[in-house]
């Protein structure tokens, strides 16, 4: 609008000047020694306007020529800035995508070529983040040192370097070092939300309950943390503070400092009830637990409510039975009621509640309580049975079928398996015949050879052995192994060879005295001549 206004004004002035000059004709005389110039007024005005335009254009052209170096420098700066932005953009995209190698390469190149300090700090911190993602912690630390050096004394850059360093140190698990980096920010009054979250992570990792409690409170007050997460941290740190101050004068001050909703958290309620119990204020402890259970039913709170002295049983039992009307099938509540009845020596009610709890869920605690109940009622068989069930439930013992036999072990690959004839069978299976085991055996170890002839591994082989003895021995010769109970005795007294282990093989005495060795009888025609007669040393 201003341009149109000045254009219109200039046109009006030109028209007015033209009218005036036309109606007032005159001459202009210029005396410039030794010249005398005379011209009309109109020509003089036109020459003045033309001279002004020429002078203006000339001056502008001269200024443009003189500004060429500045424009070149600005152009080069813009081109360098564009290159820096391109490298920074590529590096950050690679960093966000997880391509840490490419990102570190671009960001390191940016760090080397850029001349802007803030850009160098940003490139060093980003490259350190990429090196951290690759697990190159030494290179990361060098880049962080470069960023700290480039930050100088500027508060914003110092805080950015400290927060990035602390975040990566916490990811690495170095909470103490991260806390040392963040302490100058906390001392200087920097209480940004991100700094508070990092301080909370560091103090939580180092189990600094006081700091965790105050930081979690501050973050939830500023709506910077989800309520469930803040409640979990406040619950854990607040209960730890109460337990650490148990038995001292500061315990009640810590309890009074807690807000009403914080006292209803499970761990804080348990710690508070324990503190009141230790101080001899059982009624106050019961009120704390009742208020917490009314907000959220928790098995640990109910179990703590059931642990009380005998004089508290009637009051707590009446309150717990009101909860049972709302949760009639809850096994934790039924177990707690059984424990209360045990404390009050109400044996019949205790048995009913505990049996109802077992019908809903069989656990070690309920079985142990039933065992204690039956032990007090002088029912040892039932007490032992429930104690065994409590052990089985707590250790998750497998249930084995009592009438099922274990499958026979495969001894085919045992390098020291002893066969029915008292020799070693190497590389043979149980299905191989006499012809297969008739080859060369390795030498029997002396410790095993002393006891190898005292037993057989197959009961059927022993029966066949006795039949061959009867066929070879004279009619009046007694048989050493004629009693069928010898087979049963073998399974009770036969040694187990341990040659496959690195331990020495123990020797065993024979189960029965050795009988005199009978003389070999002539081989009957039915026995092959190539097989030596069977020898019996009379031992079982």
Architecture overview:
Helices cover 64% and strands 2% of the residues. Helix 6 runs antiparallel to helix 7 (155-172). A hairpin with a 2-residue loop joins strand 1 (27-32) and strand 2 (35-40). Mean pLDDT is 78; it is low at 399-406, 416-463 and 474-540. The longest helix is centred in the N-terminal third of the chain and has 30 residues, at 68-97. It has helices at 2-23, 41-66, 68-97, 100-113, 117-133, 137-151, 155-172, 175-187, 193-205, 209-221, 227-244, 250-257, 260-263, 266-278, 282-295, 299-306, 313-326, 331-343, 347-360, 364-376, 380-395, 446-452, 459-472, 485-493, and strands at residues 27-32, 35-40. Strands 1-2 form a two-stranded antiparallel sheet. The termini are far apart. The chain is an all-alpha fold.
Low-pLDDT sequence parts: 399-406, 416-463, 474-540
How many alpha or pi helices?
24
Q: How many β-strands, per DSSP?
A: 2
The N- to C-terminal Cα distance equals 128 Å
> How would you state the average pLDDT, rounded?
78
Q: What is the radius of gyration?
A: 51 Å
Main sheet characteristics: 2 strands, antiparallel
Overall form: elongated
Order of helices and strands: HEEHHHHHHHHHHHHHHHHHHHHHHH
**Can you give the helix content as a percent range?**
55-70%
Q: Which structural class best describes the helix and strand composition?
A: mainly alpha
Strand content: under 5%
Q: What is the topology, as strand order, of the major beta sheet? A: 1-2
């Amino acid at each position: 609008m201003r341009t149109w206004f000045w254009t219109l004004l200039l046109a009006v002035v030109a028209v007015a000047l033209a009218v005036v000059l036309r109606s007032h004709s005159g001459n202009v005389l210029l005396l410039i020694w030794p010249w005398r110039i005379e011209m009309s007024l109109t020509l003089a005005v036109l020459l003045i306007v033309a001279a002004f335009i020429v002078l203006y254009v000339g001056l502008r052209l001269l200024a443009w020529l003189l500004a060429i170096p500045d424009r070149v420098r600005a152009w080069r700066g813009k081109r360098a800035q564009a290159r820096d932005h391109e490298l920074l953009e590529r590096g950050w995209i690679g960093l966000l995508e997880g391509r840490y190698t490419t990102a570190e390469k671009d960001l390191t190149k940016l760090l080397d070529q850029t001349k802007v300090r803030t850009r160098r700090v940003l490139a060093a911190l980003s490259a350190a983040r990429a090196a951290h993602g690759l697990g190159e912690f030494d290179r990361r630390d060098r880049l962080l040192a470069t960023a700290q050096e480039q930050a100088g004394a500027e508060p914003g850059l110092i805080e950015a370097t400290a927060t990035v360093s602390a975040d990566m140190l916490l990811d690495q698990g170095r909470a103490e070092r991260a806390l040392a980096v963040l302490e100058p920010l906390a001392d200087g009054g920097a209480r940004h939300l991100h700094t508070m979250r990092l301080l909370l992570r560091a103090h939580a990792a180092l189990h600094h309950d006081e700091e965790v409690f105050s930081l979690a409170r501050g973050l939830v007050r500023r709506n910077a943390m989800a309520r469930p997460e803040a409640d979990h941290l406040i619950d854990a740190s607040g209960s730890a503070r109460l337990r650490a101050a148990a038995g001292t004068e500061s315990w009640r001050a810590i309890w009074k400092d807690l807000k009403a909703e914080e006292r209803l958290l499970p761990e804080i309620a348990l710690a508070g009830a324990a503190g009141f119990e230790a101080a001899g204020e059982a009624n106050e402890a019961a009120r704390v637990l009742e208020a917490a259970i009314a907000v959220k039913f928790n098995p640990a709170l109910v179990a703590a409510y059931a642990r009380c002295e005998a004089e508290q049983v009637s009051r707590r039992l009446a309150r717990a039975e009101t909860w049972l009307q709302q949760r009639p099938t809850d096994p934790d509540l039924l177990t707690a009621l059984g424990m209360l009845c045990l404390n009050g020596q109400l044996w019949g009610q205790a048995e009913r509640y505990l049996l109802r709890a077992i019908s809903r869920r069989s656990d070690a605690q309920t079985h142990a309580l039933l065992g204690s109940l039956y032990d007090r009622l002088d029912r040892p068989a039932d007490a032992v049975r429930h104690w065994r069930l409590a052990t089985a439930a707590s250790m998750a013992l497998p249930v084995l079928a009592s009438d099922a036999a274990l499958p026979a072990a495969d001894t085919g690959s045992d390098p020291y398996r002893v066969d029915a004839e008292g020799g070693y069978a190497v590389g043979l299976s149980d299905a191989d015949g006499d012809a297969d085991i008739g080859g060369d055996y390795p030498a029997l170890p002396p410790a095993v050879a002393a006891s190898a002839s005292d037993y057989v591994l197959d009961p059927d082989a022993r029966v066949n052995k006795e039949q061959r003895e009867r066929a070879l021995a004279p009619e009046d010769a007694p048989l050493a192994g004629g009693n069928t109970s010898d087979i049963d005795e073998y399974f009770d007294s036969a040694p187990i060879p341990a040659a496959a282990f690195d331990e020495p093989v123990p020797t065993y005495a024979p189960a029965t005295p050795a009988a005199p060795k009978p003389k070999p009888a002539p081989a009957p025609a039915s026995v092959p001549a190539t097989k030596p007669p069977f020898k019996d040393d009379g031992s079982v």
